[in-house]
Amino acid sequence: MNAAPAQLEPNDAPTKARPFRRAVLRGLGVVLPPLLTIVLFIWAWTTIDGYVLRPIENAVTEVMVFAGMRSHVKDGMPADVVIENIQVVDKRNQRVQAGEIVRQAGSVQAGVANAPLHGWRVTAFDYDGTTYVPVAGNRWVPNYVYATVKATPGKLVLPSATARDIYEQYIRVEYLPRWRVIPVFLVMFIGLLYLLGKFLAAGVGRMLLATFEGLIRRLPIVRNVYSSVKQVTDFIFS
To answer: What is the pTM (predicted TM-score) of this model?
Structure first.
């Protein structure tokens, strides 16, 4: 009489999932460190770019736009512009003698204002060696500014863009492109961090840092967040 098959204990049961699980965990152990390192650097750069670089970039742009518009943008056509330097076209884009619109209107400004009544359009004028073209709001910008922005408009809609919008885009394209701003910013930022680190390593710096952290620890909610963040940053940068 055949003996009954022996019963396997639960611990003796073959588990095919364990080799698969170990392989997955081993793969995660290889992939996660470089992946998390990349994610950490991307997060750090996104934070610096959003809260440090872009505000500085916007402030520099505002200053340059203000200075550039005051010296280059014209609010209307100057009264002393030479008539021969005004470019006027009709409905068929045929050149019209500028003296004709002045003769009919009595002055340069009146002729420019009344040109649309005759189906004419003032396309540009030369003044002090610079060619100006019209933009929205009866303002005039240098043609080289308009041509640069027309070649690289970004999100700007040129037909409805104001002189300020055009000049801001010109500054960003011509003087503050990202490929130029980012290296300069990184050099200055690393230099600032170096000076800050040297200062905090000195006696006065350590005292100021201890005073600052002492004030932070007195704030009920902020101290918990600050201490947790400091533990993480100390662990990373150590």
So the answer is: 0.71
